UniProtKB/TrEMBL annotation:
InterPro entries: Ig-like_dom, Ig-like_dom_sf, Ig-like_fold, Ig_Fc_receptor, Ig_sub, Ig_sub2, IL-40-like_Ig. The chain crosses the membrane at residues 601-620. Gene3D superfamilies: Immunoglobulins. The lineage of its organism: Eukaryota, Metazoa, Chordata, Craniata, Vertebrata. The keyword Transmembrane applies. Residues 7-126, 227-310, 318-404, 506-592 form the Ig-like domain. It comes from Salmo trutta. Keywords: Disulfide bond, Glycoprotein, Membrane, Signal, Transmembrane, Transmembrane helix. This is Platelet endothelial cell adhesion molecule-like. It holds the Pfam family Ig_2. GO terms for biological process: cell surface receptor signaling pathway; cell-cell adhesion via plasma-membrane adhesion molecules; immune response. CDD domains: Ig (cd00096). One of its GO terms (cellular component) is external side of plasma membrane.
């Protein structure tokens, strides 16, 4: 038996070398291709009728020398519809056989040659004409309640289609599908009906309509039974309190009525049901007025009959009113409950009795004529009031009447809301802790009205600006409050607040007197002003920026003590006074510190000692050299000099 020989290593090597050479050759050929553009054409034309074979041709403009890798992609309305690879950049042919309206759109081609990609311009293809649909049914004659199956077909069409079904030219049903046919089931009323259909092909953002299909006539055999509704008492005049009887029955051939059922209802309320009859009885009330319905159901068949029932009121709903419409606590309230209309042939006005309630509790045990007075002694008359009217065992309730009794305004308080300074404007507020809004506040000075304002919102205040010229003027102001025009205003106390009087007439005095300020003694600098304390006093010495001393006092004056005054304390002094209103400064005072008395006595004693020594020296000299006369003259000269020296030392001021 022959066995295939394994390829030798030399053969494999040769094959690899040959493949490498071929690949290198192809690479050289590819690198020499010139790709300049792509063209898309529609053949035979851009506008065709349905059923035409259309060719979409994609052609690349390329100059080549060797093998090319090319890939073409066709797009319709930016959606990819076809992709194909073609050797050596040949033309791509994309065929649309038997083109339909669904093929309408913008076509574009994209070519990729040797990893270079170019796109053509878009070309619009328009296909006109739609196939006429065909309508068919599964049966032409059927009984009422049965369903008929209907088909609408357009077998040559494609794309997204919306089918419409019509009964006697009125649209009955629609369905959107991605197919060329649709099936549905319809339930029709008894009688002969003409059915047809049509469709629309969706071409976003528009759609293209088809012609109407053929007409198909179907016959629905009706069931010879009908619902009957009857109302007693007969006629249009049914008054509240009458016995109301309503029945729902079936008229016709009931031989085959195994699945028959009737329903009596009013609106969404089911009143009664039965096999072939349903009854409902009640005492007639006005709210029973409306449309009653008798429905017959047999299999899929439903038939209806209606009757509009109008019930006249025996008496109208009572209306609760209040006088006055606005009340305050502990004020009398008159409540009136009345039914304005009543059926005069059944009852009289006196037959209607009333009851009044507050917060669901009866205020009037037993019935009364409808007028009730809430006495003034009732502290809290606020609440939810209502009333009831009764006649012939029929009760009717009024709408609720909420009553909120107003609170009388309390005594107002007048307060200053900013610092009060004589001669400067400030604000006062007038406020009452209790009282229903709105509240009118009036500011008065003695008996004259200054201003007024009305507070409408909670947490708001009445604010008034005023200015006083004397600290006692605040006692002239009062505030009035009123929220009830039927009572007098409520007056506050006088405005009681702290008043600041601006400082004035500042003065600086020195103790002891300026002529008696001597070294070693104490000196007091006293600063005094007129105005309201507390006052801050500051003492300055001219030439110094910082004060010598600062103090705050509740008095109108203060002092600064300097112990053991020396010559260095001589100079000019002044003081400054400050309160909440202003700052004032005194006139400057110059202080000259005198020499101490003991120093003056020491100087005189020294001078006398010098004079004595000089006199002695003169006597001795006279005795030794000159005569008695010359000594006397010299002694006189020296004595005069000593006296002048003493006088000069005694009278010289201390520096």
């Amino acid at each position: 038996m022959w066995e295939p020989q394994q390829p030798s290593v030399r053969m494999v090597t040769r094959l690899l070398l040959l493949t490498s050479v071929l690949f290198s050759t192809c690479q050289v050929a590819e690198s020499q291709a010139l790709f300049t553009g792509v063209t898309l054409t529609l053949e035979p034309s851009n506008a065709v009728s349905q059923g035409t074979n259309v060719t979409v041709r994609c052609q690349a403009s390329v100059s080549r020398a060797g093998f090319l890798n090319s890939k073409y992609t066709i797009y319709k309305d930016n959606t990819e519809v076809h992709t194909e690879s073609i050797a050596n950049a040949g033309d791509l042919i994309y065929s649309l056989r038997m083109a339909r309206v669904a093929n309408t759109g913008k076509y574009k081609c994209k070519a990729n040659i040797n990893d270079k990609e170019l796109s053509s311009n878009s070309e619009k293809l328009t296909v006109t004409g739609l196939q006429t649909p065909v309508l068919s049914v599964n049966k032409h004659v059927f009984s009422e309640g049965e369903e008929v199956t209907v088909w609408c077909k357009a077998p040559e069409e494609s794309g997204t289609i919306v089918f419409y079904f019509y009964k006697d030219s009125k649209e009955l049903y629609e369905e959107r599908v991605n197919a060329n046919h649709v099936e549905t089931r319809l339930r029709l009323n008894a009688g002969d009906h003409r059915l047809h259909c049509d469709y629309r092909v969706i071409l976003l953002p528009d759609s293209v309509p088809s012609n109407a299909s053929n007409n198909v006539v179907v016959t629905v055999k009706g069931l010879f039974i009908t619902p009957v509704i009857s109302v007693r008492p007969h006629g249009s005049m049914i008054i509240e309190g009458d016995n109301l009887d309503i029945s729902c029955s079936v008229s016709g051939n009931l031989q085959n009525s195994s699945g028959l059922k009737v329903y009596l209802s009013k609106g969404s309320n089911l009143l009664s049901t039965g096999q072939s009859k349903a009854n409902h009885s009640t005492r007639a009330l006005a709210e029973h007025s409306g449309v009653f319905q008798c429905a017959l159901e047999m299999g899929n068949v439903i038939k209806r009959a209606t009757e509009n029932v109008t019930i006249t009121e025996l008496f109208s709903l009572p209306v609760l009113t209040m006088y006055p419409t606005e009340v305050f606590e502990r004020e009398k309230i008159t409540l009136t409950c009345k039914s304005t209309n009543y059926s005069s042939d059944r009852i009289s006005a006196s037959d209607v009795k009333y009851s009044i309630y507050k917060d669901n509790y009866t205020l009037t045990p037993g019935s009364f004529n409808g007028i009730y007075v809430v006495p003034e002694a009732v502290r809290n008359s606020s609440g939810i009031y209502s009333c009831k009217a009764d006649a012939r065992m029929i009760s009717k309730y009024s709408a609720e009447l909420p009553v909120q009794a107003k609170v009388p305004v309390s005594k107002p308080e007048i307060t200053a809301i900013s610092r009060v300074i004589v001669g400067k404007p400030f604000q006062v507020s007038c406020h009452s802790d209790r009282g229903s809004l709105p509240i009118e506040y009036t500011l008065r000075k003695k008996y004259s009205k200054v201003n007024s304002t009305t507070v409408q919102q909670p947490h708001h205040q009445a604010i008034f600006p005023i200015t006083i010229q004397h600290y006692s003027d605040t006692q002239d102001y009062k505030c009035e409050a009123r929220n009830n025009p039927k009572i007098d205003v409520v007056v506050s106390n006088k405005l009681n607040t702290t008043v600041t009087v601006p400082l004035s007439n500042p003065g600086l005095s020195v103790v002891p007197d300026l002529l008696e300020v001597t070294e070693g003694n104490e000196m007091y600098l006293i600063c005094a002003v007129e105005g309201s304390p507390p006052v801050t006093f500051k003492w300055y010495r001219r030439g110094n920026v910082q004060p010598l001393f600062t103090t705050t006092s509740t008095q109108s004056s203060a002092s600064h003590q300097i112990k053991r005054v020396g010559n260095e304390h001589s100079g000019t002094y002044y003081c400054e006074a400050i309160n909440y209103a202003n700052t004032v400064q005194s006139q400057p005072v110059t202080v000259d510190v005198k020499m101490a008395m003991w120093k003056k006595g020491l100087i005189v004693a020294c001078c006398l000692l010098v004079v004595a020594v000089l006199v002695l020296a003169c006597v001795l000299r006279y005795n030794s050299k000159r005569g008695k006369r010359e000594n006397a003259a010299e002694l006189s000269v020296w004595s005069g000099c000593c006296c002048k020296c003493l006088e000069r030392e005694a009278g010289r001021p201390r520096q």
